[in-house]
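Quick question about two entries, pasted in order.
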Amino acid sequence: MTDYEHILVDGQEIITITLNRPEIHNPFDDKMIAELTACFNIIQSKPDARAVIITGAGRSFCAGADLNWMKRMGQYSLDENLADAGGLSAMFQALEDIEIPTIARINGAALGGGAGLVCACDFAIASEHVKIGFSEVKLGLLPGVISPYVIDRIGGKKAVQLFTTGERLAAEDALKVGLVDKVVSLEGLDLIISQLIKQILSGGPKAVKECKRLARAGVHMERDEFKKYCISAIAQIRASPEGKEGVGSFLEKREPAWRD
């Protein structure tokens, strides 16, 4: 988890991933995308991990696409562009596949793909001075790969407005439209996230994963199918050792084992 050039990874139970190209505002290029994809896949296989925090080094969260990467893309054929976009999509899919909660710690500007990374996380906590926007249209492009995650977070109509104007929103305006969940001072960012982590850790590790899976399943399943899924999910968790421990500790007025 440490052999990377463009990202830093720290922690075992709470894993912090830092986009680490601060001198150019932490943009994506093919190397960073490959490193993030590999890192996300490793996290998915770590049974002791409980939450993931994604942030940026320096003054920015992520400024979108690296200029040199964009220059190369401008010379690509259609097939090469398909492969390149597919690689970015695979990175976002690897993030989406992570079973534990993911938190965007937005310490600075999040633009284009960086704003998409915010939307792909389960929680988005922003410092008060950040700017967030989808500027692709200004370049004659569109936010294709990230659009499913943006639409999931803010809905289709608001996505149309932000995509077609390329408007950069201040933190409070991003909060109003749902791009972020909370806005705090830069100095208070870590305190708020630590409080959020504490809440996540208070729940059963398996239950937290199953709650995330349940909520996501409900978005995509047909209603009757989802009802059957819900019945099976609650029955299995009740019968699990963790479920029995949780109910038992409540009835016995003690802390459950996972909080120890």
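Here is the second entry:
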Amino acid sequence: MALWDRLREGLRRTRQGLGDRIRTLWTGGKEGAALFDDLEAVLYEADLGPQLVEAVLSELRRTVGGGARGGADEVLQAVYQILVAHLPSPRDPWRLPPTPPAVWLVVGVNGTGKTTTAAKMAYALRQQGRTVCLGAADTFRAAAVEQLEVWGQRLGVEVIRQGSGADPAAVAFDTAQAAAARGLHAAIIDTAGRLHNKAQLMEELKKVARVVGKAVAGAPHRVWLVLDATTGQNGLAQARVFTEAVAVDGIVLTKLDGTAKGGVALAIYETLGVPVELVGVGEGPEDLLPFDPDRYVAAILGRSGPGEWV
């Protein structure tokens, strides 16, 4: 299945809750305040967030007035243009520094798909002919280490680990050092998602970030925050805590195929200023896709091609 088709299929529930409902509103006969009240509810339920909701409502009031002038296609096209304008240009998520190895930290709370995401990243890099190892630094959760080892065996990727309860920073250091010694292109380190309390977790992540810099100059080169799309706006509260502790520069939004709240991808950048660069739309190793704002917005609104709405 082509990337575009996989993205559209993965966002089917969000499209049903957003694009399809906007079309229904504009063909339902309502006008004026009642129409825009219903539209506001639809936008909030898709988790676009208050700033984007207000931007969409304000622009549509200006272009279509208080009634339903113009057909549903024209309205969807207008919403599409508004939303795309509020997102940054896409970046290549697989970019690596000129001098290897790249050291990536994967952070986020447990249950977001963090460990699986680290493995999917390794798969994607391997598909590009790059060499990579994985670091099992979520040492406080034995299941995470075991899960990463299973992925490593499946993908043919070495997993650097220590015993249960080992110092996560020591594992991260070993992983970065191993990547350098072996001449690998990248090291991807799965970090802890939960400790005894939030402050303890954040201090542990800061320590990991410091330590990998001692193993490889300039590390960490990327800090990826994994967020679960099904949590919607609640995920933004998690994101703020992580961005305050470590220099998060890219978001991975997972489980988009299981939610109607996929609009949160737009709210993330509007609120945090950190771009979504990868999206998870399935369980397979190939189901981690680069985030393309144009195609993403088209998919959640139901655009099948330039000027074509279904």
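Reply: The longest helix spans residues 198-215. The radius of gyration is 21 Å. Hope that helps.
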